[in-house]
Amino acid sequence: MYDVIIIGGGVSGAASARELSRYKASVCVLEKEEDVCCGTSKANSAIVHAGYDAVPGSLMAKLNVKGNEMMEQLSKDLDFPFKRIGSLVICLSKEDMPALEELYERGVKNGVRGLQIVSGEEVRAMEPNITDQVYAALYAPSAGIVCPFNLNIALAENACENGVEFKFNTEVEDIVKIDGGYELSTSQGKFQAKYVVNAAGVYADKFHNMVSEKKIRITPRRGDYCLLDKTAGNHVSRTIFSLPTKYGKGVLVTPTVHGNLLVGPTAIDIENKEGTNTTREGLDEVISKAGQNVKDLPMRQVITSFAGLRAHEDGSEFIIGEVEDAEGFIDCAGIESPGLTSCPAIGEMVAGILKEKMNLEEKENFIATRKGILDPDTLTKEEQAELIKKEPAYGNIICRCEMITEGEIIDAIRRPLGAKSLDGVKRRTRAGMGRCQSGFCSPRTMEILARELGVSMSDITKSGGKSRLVVGTNKDRI
Known about the structure:
Helix content: 25-40%
Shape: globular
């Protein structure tokens, strides 16, 4: 029996695991996919929100601001990309100024630092490609951008190094109360734990409702996005928002930490908790609404589109805490935007609840830092030459679009919780994320995966499960 089982390997589950790994406790993460960061955490706006949107006094507001404040140090400790670039909420008319001023007042109440309302003239000076119709904007210098994959993976790797177990391809099917805890029936057998943390994203209501008479409901809210090539990455230098509506923060335009330009999302409520398909209507909406705030968007530079699901709970609030009628079952539910921003604070809160309930003692040997995959571009030419001399794989370019080497891919596979699929390599190294979208590098990456994992090329998948790319050979067909 584990002390704690965490359901879900997204940012909330990984952050909770990392914080719990500070203490003397046996912790296990159960994830239904083949890797961490396979749900909401991999498909979002990658924004570190300042914290002016949430209702003052709400848990969402508190954890947003705290998570924002924690993110910079966390990025240094765990070695993942983060940039504090600031954001602008665009107001297009004098009639909309009360809504902008209300947003400012809300931010001040939430404790957001440096907020100011700037004139249209000031906005155009800051961002030359803002629409000529801009009347004013709310400027939040504390907003930032992050790599959501690297954040999630870094948290999980650090938790793993500190003793947390991860079980992949392990889907929770049922939960029952037993003496001293809970028994979880999964696709890989039964697991028992004294405490359960429900960090299952869009499925968190399913597991909550298995143990509680007080039901909750989570609606998958689909968001469509377009990702533009790095040639468009400097079109804006800050995250550009519209004035928010009841469906969220609207369509944004933002640089990414890797130099691309991201446009989206829509906000479409659906029933299918796996419904991550894009639609023509959704992408048309993204393109149309983005153009209202930013002019001359080079949409011919789109290299891919994708959709993600937000876990929208009916109360529009984070639900974090022990379930009232299910002792030992800790909800971490309804974690929609700003969940990515809030995840360091969410992990801290979940671990704090369990520390108090279990009287946990801190470890003396907790490893607080983690080193990410070496990026040869961060080295001088002399250092690169020395690296290639010692490790020739760093001189072999596999992904030409992103200039990713064989050495980086090998590192991604061999490190804690290493990549086992093409998408696993892509999220860790960006091999396959460039202009050709893995059109050229996939076979070579598959060869490296097969060699390092000791399996056949036909066993390599795109993203686990049945997503095999090789289904036979020509010789077999003759």
